[in-house]
Design a protein that fits this description.
It is a single chain. Helix content is 0%, strand content 54%. The strands form 5 sheets. A 4-stranded antiparallel beta sheet has the order 1-2-3-4, with no helix packed on it. The chain has a 4-stranded antiparallel beta sheet with strand order 5-6-7-8, with no helix packed on it. The radius of gyration is 17 Å and the shape is globular. It has no helices and 19 strands. The protein is mainly β.
Length: 206
């Protein structure tokens, strides 16, 4: 049995793309409901992140997986580029306006990948361990650090800036599991107790 784990509106909301636990990727036209793409086991394991990235008049679909790969599809093309990032699971993916892909590993590394060349540009180790699905706003990358009940911030060169702790440090009570960077210099952090925290950010991550 497979489960749908990610769904995104793409192509100016004309299409919907979904990722599944078995690595499958599917795309449908919103108006007609007709399936436009179906790649069985696109990844070797669960899809952990899915991003639509319209950049410089080109459109890309970027996905990450527990199998340690990032896949980049240029819309209008049937073939895709595969980036083998690491052995452990990747927990999510984000894409900046300048065409740089950010992805995090379950073991705490943050990777930067070129959207154009599908090459790993750099790797940053996070001493605090596990990082969740990243989100990017301008020069700042934010990612949940569930083991620290915090949001970790990195600059656009991959340098660690700061951990912003949220409430109690007892992760049995609350754990940050999701972050979303907004357009107004704020980060929304979702926690396992159902709460949402709003953090102000700058290029210094404070």
């Amino acid at each position: 049995m497979r489960w749908l784990v990610y769904i995104r509106q793409i192509n100016d909301r004309k299409s919907v793309c979904a990722g599944y636990t078995d690595g499958t990727l599917r795309e449908w036209a919103v108006k007609s409901g007709k399936e436009q793409r179906h790649v069985t086991k696109h990844h070797g394991s669960r899809v952990s992140g899915l991003v639509y990235a319209p950049i410089r008049r080109k459109e890309y679909l970027v996905s990450s997986s527990w199998d340690g790969t990032v896949k980049i599809i240029k819309r209008g093309k049937r073939a895709w580029k595969t980036v083998k990032v690491c052995k452990p699971e990747l927990t999510g993916v984000a894409v900046s306006d300048d065409g740089e892909v950010s992805t995090c590993a379950h073991t705490g590394e943050l990777y930067a990948i070129s959207l154009k060349t599908a090459k790993v540009l750099r790797r940053t180790d996070n001493e605090q361990g596990w990082l969740g699905n990243p989100s990017k706003s301008g020069p700042v990358v934010a990612a949940p650090a569930p083991n620290e009940n915090a949001v970790a911030f990195f600059d656009d060169e991959g340098h660690f800036l700061v951990h912003r702790k949220i409430g109690t440090t007892d992760v049995r009570e609350k754990r940050v599991v999701l972050v979303v960077c907004g357009m107004t210099g704020r980060v929304l952090a979702g926690c396992t107790d159902g709460s949402v925290c709003i953090l102000e950010i700058s290029e210094e991550g404070t």
